[in-house]
Write a structure and sequence with these properties.
Strand content: 5-15%
Pfam families: Choline_transpo
Main location: membrane
Mean pLDDT: 79
Oligomer: single chain
GO molecular function: transmembrane transporter activity
Number of helices: 22
Number of strands: 8
Protein name: Choline transporter-like protein
Distance between the termini: 19 Å
Function: Choline transporter.
Low-confidence stretches: 1-5, 95-101, 185-197, 724-728
Structural class: mainly alpha
Length: 729
């Protein structure tokens, strides 16, 4: 049996050998993966060059303001007094293709959206009776003179309508995102719409009756997107109104996280068990709250409706009025509670091991207190990177020049002029009178034919890949820096006396000076996997309406495999960075060394890593749950003495959700330091077991508590080694 174990160890390399000169992270080291460093610098230059190109050619105003058929930006420049876009015939706007490629009907900028049912036949009828029509009701394209001084006849007006130079009708509308969208709620879907005063049927330019269902079909896609846009605007307004309270909640999360970590320095065991108990209590409270809400809705009309019957709605309060909502949340919390209890029962011994590691990590953090605040540097860098990526993506998306095509809006026109439809044109040189009155040179989209504009999609992919690569590089830099600092702590024989001065600063300097190439190499691998996952999501989106089940199944398998691959690579890279921080070798050598060390101790690594990660997750959930519960009671006005400070919000859940997400991120930032400390100390612990045997010549560097886990101890001169634990720990 011993030979089998020895052969298994040889399979994953030789155990680390004792080196009397080794005293922790090696100072005398050289630059690693220089080629990767140079390639990364070149890529960064290209990343910045794309940003400059996007800034030169892009104009975010094109995305913020709607554009009419003549290429004018509504609400901007000369059209600042006309912020809304009016569609002549909404029956032509059915489908999401209209949202993406433009609605094939004339569109003009207007000061306000129509507020009543109106048809041009009302005005022509007045002219037949010798009365002056209400010219203010007409909505026409720029250049068409409609007014009392134009001297138009009823036949000319009718021709304008047929050529869609003037709108044939209007219906009560509301501005959503600067677009006039009808809000039809009082009429039956199949009823022919009529004007309220004259009972004249509404017809389009081709003479077709306009019904509620036709307009609803024509505006469904646009209304859904613009309604979502309005909800986003309301959410943004709520965030602006409560931003200082949100910051207060995040500040409270920082304080709670810091206090939590400081307390764990002395009573890690008690705090770990308290964390588990607190999560269980919060879970039980959540189940109880769901039960009380479910019971309270028993006699409420409509509360027994199914979520499927309600469907998707942007009014979030609709779901809180359904019993199914609280039943589903209660069941989910019950399942989570059951899983926690099962893990607690079967992994209680591993939890004791994790507690010992957390205590040692607490001592390491307490001796290098600056590590708690170091994550702020990577976080700020990531924030700057994300802002840069978002700005470049916005400018790239708004790059382009106005593109115009010939459009024949008169569906009854059979002349040869209609054959020009779809051809490119220039508004300033296009002569409508020389072709046909119904043929117009209309704005279609923004774009161009130059090499830059033809490759905008690939530039967006390059920009996204830049986000992934640099983001992972920042994470790698932070992990390598922390690993070097905690390794300096572990390999100090007499703590804290032998701990180097400013270990965090020294580790950060070594990472920047010697290992940028190795960090770029590791982060590049993760970025490649992430961009492949994005491409798979894009393909999945394109194939969502496909009937090919085999292709869908293969795509789902690929998505699952690459998700697992990303998680595995992140785990291996993290341990490789620890080895880089300690020994100063290149990425491949360090990754191999870390992998073999893990495989030689796979059971210990699997047990301790999973348990400590679970415990840290519970700790983050406790902090998040505490801050989330406090914010819920505050923003719902249930804290009586603080009710006067609660602002008037459209969606009170918005700041609560933001605070909860932010609190989790803050807690994750603080506990990531502890997680890195545990991983670093544990790898050092495994190396310590292989390098040393506890003799006076080769003493262990680990703490007495860690030695007690395996029944090890440092022997005095002449003392014989006692057989320790079997290794199952």
């Amino acid at each position: 049996m011993g030979k089998d174990n020895e052969g298994e160890e040889k399979k994953y390399g030789d155990p680390a050998k004792f080196d009397p000169e080794f005293k922790g992270p090696i100072e005398n080291r050289s630059c690693t993966d220089i080629i990767c460093c140079l390639l990364f610098i070149i890529f960064i230059a290209g990343f910045l060059a794309v940003g400059i190109l996007a800034w030169v050619h892009g104009d975010p105003k094109l995305l913020l303001y709607p554009t009419d058929s003549q290429g004018n930006l509504c609400g901007n420049g000369n059209y600042a007094s006309k912020p809304n876009l009016h569609f002549f015939n909404l029956l032509d706007c059915a489908g999401f293709a209209s949202v993406l490629d433009g609605c094939p009907t004339p569109q003009v900028c207007v000061a306000t959206c129509p507020t009543e049912y109106w048809a041009y036949a009302i005005e022509t009828a007045k002219m037949g009776l010798g009365q002056e029509p209400d010219w203010s009701k007409f909505i026409c394209v720029e250049g068409v003179n409609v007014g009392s001084g134009a001297g138009l006849t009823a036949a000319q007006i009718e021709q304008y309508v047929k050529d869609q130079k003037c709108a044939a009708y209007t219906v009560p509308s509301k501005a959503y995102g600067g677009r006039c969208i009808p809000s039809l709620v009082e009429t039956i879907a199949t009823t022919v719409l009529t004007t309220s005063a004259d009972d004249i049927p509404l017809v389009d330019s081709a003479g077709n009756n306009v019904t509620n269902s036709k307009i609803s079909a024509g505006t469904a896609a646009l209304a859904l997107i613009l309604s979502a846009q309005e909800v986003v605007q309301e959410i943004f307004t709520d965030m602006v109104s409560s931003w200082y309270l949100i910051l207060g909640g995040l500040g409270a999360a920082m304080v709670v996280s810091f206090i939590y970590i400081v307390i764990m320095r002395w009573i890690a065991g008690v705090m770990v068990w308290f964390t588990i108990f607190a999560v269980i209590v919060l879970n039980i409270f959540g189940i109880y709250y769901c039960y009380t809400q479910y019971v309270a809705l028993e006699n409420v009309s409509g509360a027994d409706s199914s979520i499927y019957d309600v469907g998707f709605t942007t009014n979030l309060s609709t779901y809180t009025k359904l019993q199914d909502t609280w039943l589903g949340i209660g069941i989910a919390l019950s399942v989570i509670l059951l899983i926690i209890l099962l893990i607690l029962i079967f992994l209680r011994n591993r939890i004791r091991i994790a507690i010992a590691l957390i205590k040692e990590s607490s001592r390491a953090v307490s001796n290098i207190m600056s590590t708690l605040f170091f994550p702020l540097i990577p976080w700020i860098l990531q924030l700057i990177l994300f802002a840069y990526w978002g700005a470049v993506a916005l400018f790239l998306a708004s790059s382009g020049q106005a593109q115009y095509e010939v459009q024949d809006y008169n569906t009854t026109n059979t002349s040869t002029a209609s054959n020009m439809t779809g051809q490119s044109c220039t508004p300033t040189t296009f002569d409508t009178n020389a072709v046909s009155d119904s043929v117009q040179c209309a704005f279609v989209k923004y774009g161009a034919t130059s090499l830059y504009y033809q490759n905008l999609f690939y530039l967006q992919i390059f920009n996204l890949f830049g986000l992934f690569w640099v983001m992972n590089f920042i994470v790698a830099l932070g992990q390598c820096t922390l690993a070097g600092a905690f390794a300096s702590y572990y390999w100090a024989f007499t703590k804290p006396k032998d701990i180097p001065t400013f270990p965090l600063t020294a580790s950060f300097g070594r990472s920047l000076r010697y290992h940028l190439g190795s960090l770029a190499f590791g982060s590049f691998i993760i970025a490649v996997v992430q961009i492949i996952r994005v491409m798979l999501e894009y393909i999945d989106h394109k194939l969502k309406d496909s009937e090919n089940r085999a292709a869908k199944f293969l795509l789902k398998c690929l998505k699952c495999c690459f998700w697992c691959l990303e998680k595995l690579l992140k785990f291996l890279n993290k341990n490789a960075y620890i080895m880089i921080a300690i020994y100063g070798k290149n990425f491949c050598v360090s990754a191999k060394k870390a992998f073999f060390l893990i495989m030689r101790n796979i059971l210990r690594v699997a047990a301790v890593t999973s348990v400590t990660n679970f415990l840290f997750l519970l700790s983050k959930l406790v902090v998040t749950g505490a801050i989330g519960t406090l914010s819920f009671y505050f923003f719902t006005g249930k804290i009586v003495f603080a009710a006067e400070y609660v602002p008037n919000l459209k969606y009170y859940m918005v700041p609560i959700i933001v605070v909860v997400i932010g609190a989790y991120m803050v807690a994750a930032c603080f506990f990531s330091v502890y997680n890195m400390a545990v991983d670093t100390l544990f790898l050092c612990f495994l190396e310590d077991l292989e390098r040393n045997d506890g003799s006076p010549e080769k003493p262990y560097y680990m703490s007495k508590e860690l030695m007690s886990i395996l029944g090890k101890k440092n022997r005095k001169e002449g003392e014989k080694e006692k057989k320790g634990c079997c290794g199952c720990c």
